[in-house]
Design goal:
The protein is mostly beta strands. The chain has no helices and ten strands.
Length: about 110
């Protein structure tokens, strides 16, 4: 199970931190990531962190977002800085395999206003 929290509304240039509490699987054995779905658009990659420590960021968030995980708390995080209006989306936490819909949380809304 994956449960996101921390979404909300913020003005452009602000920051938000998302958390994803997990249970029911071996957290430190899974790659974990964040995806988002902007209104009227397809779901897109935000960031993934492989079990070997490799991190990938989507081009649109590089340098602004930071993914991290705490294996002692089975929790994934996403720190979002310098937010832009185009970051408005529903943000989903996911684990490998990412293509399985059952491996995603319900999502949390992030709204960035100008």
């Amino acid at each position: 199970q994956l449960q996101e929290s921390g979404g909300g509304s913020v003005q452009a240039g602000g920051s938000l931190g998302l958390s994803c509490a997990t249970s029911g699987f071996i957290f430190n054995a899974c790659g974990m990531g964040w995806y988002r779905q902007p209104p009227g658009k397809e779901r897109e990659l935000v960031s993934i962190r492989h079990t070997n420590g490799t991190i990938i960021y989507g081009d649109d968030v590089k340098g602004r977002f930071t993914i991290s995980r705490d294996n002692t708390k089975n929790t994934l995080y996403l720190q979002m800085n310098s937010l832009k209006t185009e970051d408005t989306a529903v943000y989903y936490c996911a684990r490998t395999p990412y293509t399985d819909p059952s491996n995603r949380g319900q999502g949390t809304q992030v709204t960035v206003s100008s």
